[in-house]
């Protein structure tokens, strides 16, 4: 039997064989040095083995082909709605918007609950003969322009692109005894804004008119801001887009000023030919420019006339903190497209014949970013209607204009706190006129 030396006996075993009181004496310097040498040798052996493993793994990685791992899509191939086409991707969004405004009108109050109490509606500004009006002041608070939308996008195996989009807000009347007023619940019904489907270059459904340039609209606290000078219309249409060109057939509707009436008008409902529009647009880092044209067949009670109108608009970026936005529009039969239908498309003469009416309008807006969180806008807008007073009478709007300045602060992305001061004027053919002054604030959170 091989005899163990003192150096080969484990330290813990040697220590355990001694009485507890003799431990300190048994652990001499030679024994500790020998044990330390053993530990050092074991560590060197472990380092050698670790180095061999690392070299073997590196060599194996060099000879192994790289396999790309696909990132799973945000939505699975099976859509979240069972009735949708396989592969459809859904998106949703909207915003919450609180509007609070104090208004002063020089010649009477705007009717409570009407559009002019919710946003700037040029035709709603009260007028009176010079010196005969009574001023009025009032405050309105509402959240009716809060909105939400849902989109569905699909790319087929053949590469066709399908898109569906629907959007609504609460700017509509209610359907029960407590709805649509400020007495108890401030309940309002949904209003359809957009509902369309597109397939490659084609679009069918309700959306902005192809005659309108939404991208040129100023950054305002009010719903549209320079309303009287803006082409503004959403309606059903069939549109084709190819490159910078787009063409559409849109819902026809003729508004008619009655012969020597009191400023009221009627909707004919007799139209049979769609409104035809064409648009050409160019975009780049400098901004965008677009020109649009429209041809209409105006019709009422078997009488017809033709309307032809054009619109130029765009945005020019000036440096990194400023841009200039503009729109100029005019022509025959432009009435219901300009300024929230500030003027009629046509008028009846003494013999009942239909005549298209001319109208012109536009706006210019300067936007400046003071910082990443603070921006401001200065806007002017105007509209002029070329009425034939011998047919329309003298109680129709002859012109309207407005100025506004605002500051919008965004403490966080998607959250806007805005304040806007505006002054507006409206004048009739008979000389009656009125002013509107408004302080409009909002809180808007987009998601």
Question: Total number of β-strand segments?
Answer: 21
Largest sheet: 16 strands, antiparallel, barrel
Alpha-carbon distance between the two ends: 85 Å
Q: What Rg is obtained from the alpha carbons, in whole angstroms?
A: 37 Å
The helix-and-strand class reads mainly beta
**H/E element sequence:** HHHEEEEEEEEEEEEEEEEEEHEEE
Instruction: Using the alpha-carbon principal axes, give the shape.
Output: elongated
Enumerate the spans where pLDDT stays under 50 for 5 or more consecutive residues.
Answer: 1-18, 20-24, 66-72
Query: Level of helix content?
Result: 10-25%
Can you give the mean pLDDT?
87
Topology record:
Blueprint: H1 11-16, H2 23-26, H3 29-62, E1 89-105, E2 136-142, E3 147-155, E4 161-169, E5 191-199, E6 202-208, E7 234-242, E8 245-250, E9 255-257, E10 265-267, E11 275-284, E12 287-300, E13 303-318, E14 322-332, E15 346-348, E16 354-356, E17 358-369, E18 374-386, H4 389-392, E19 397-412, E20 415-428, E21 433-446
Parallel strand pairs: 9-15
Antiparallel strand pairs: 1-2, 1-3, 1-21, 3-4, 4-5, 5-6, 6-7, 7-8, 8-11, 9-10, 11-12, 12-13, 13-14, 14-17, 15-16, 17-18, 18-19, 19-20, 20-21
């Amino acid at each position: 039997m091989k005899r163990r030396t003192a150096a080969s006996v484990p330290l813990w075993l040697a220590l355990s064989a001694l009485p507890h009181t003799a431990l300190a004496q048994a652990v001499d310097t030679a024994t500790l040095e020998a044990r330390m040498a053993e530990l050092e040798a074991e560590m060197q052996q472990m380092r050698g083995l670790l180095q061999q493993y690392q070299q073997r793994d590196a060599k194996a990685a060099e000879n192994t082909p790289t396999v790309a791992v696909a990132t799973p899509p945000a939505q699975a191939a099976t859509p979240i709605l069972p009735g949708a086409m396989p592969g459809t991707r859904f998106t949703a969004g909207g915003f919450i918007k609180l509007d609070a405004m104090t208004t002063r009108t020089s010649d009477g109050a705007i009717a409570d609950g009407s559009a002019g109490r919710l946003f700037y509606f040029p035709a709603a500004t009260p007028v009176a003969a010079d010196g005969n009006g009574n001023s009025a002041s009032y405050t309105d608070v509402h959240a009716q322009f809060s909105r939400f939308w849902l989109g569905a996008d699909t790319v087929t195996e053949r590469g066709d692109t399908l898109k569906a989009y629907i959007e609504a807000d609460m700017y509509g009347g209610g359907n029960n005894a407590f709805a649509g007023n400020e007495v108890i619940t401030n309940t309002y019904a949904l209003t359809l804004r957009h509902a369309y489907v597109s397939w490659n270059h084609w679009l069918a459904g309700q959306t902005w008119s192809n005659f309108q340039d939404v991208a040129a609209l100023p950054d305002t606290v009010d719903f549209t801001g320079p309303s009287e000078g803006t082409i503004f219309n959403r309606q059903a249409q069939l549109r084709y887009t190819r490159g910078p060109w787009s063409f559409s057939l849109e819902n026809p509707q003729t508004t008619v000023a009655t012969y020597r009436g009191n400023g009221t008008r009627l909707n004919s409902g007799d139209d049979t030919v769609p409104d035809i529009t064409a648009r050409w647009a160019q975009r780049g880092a400098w901004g965008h420019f677009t020109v649009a044209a429209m041809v209409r067949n105006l019709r009422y009670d078997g009488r017809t006339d033709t309307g032809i109108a054009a619109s130029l608009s765009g945005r020019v970026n000036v440096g990194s903190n400023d841009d200039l936005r503009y729109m100029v529009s005019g022509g025959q039969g432009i009435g219901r497209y300009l300024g929230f239908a500030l003027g009629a498309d046509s008028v009846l003469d003494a013999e009942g014949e239909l005549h298209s009416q001319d109208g012109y309008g536009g706006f210019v807006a300067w936007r400046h970013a003071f910082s990443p969180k603070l921006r401001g806008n200065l806007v002017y807008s105007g509209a002029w209607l070329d009425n034939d007073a011998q047919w329309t009478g003298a109680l129709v709007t002859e012109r309207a204009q407005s100025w506004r300045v605002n500051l919008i602060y965004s403490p966080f992305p998607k959250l806007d706190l805005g304040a806007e001061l505006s002054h507006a004027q409206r004048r009739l053919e008979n000389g009656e006129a009125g002013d509107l002054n408004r302080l409009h604030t909002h809180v808007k959170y987009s998601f």
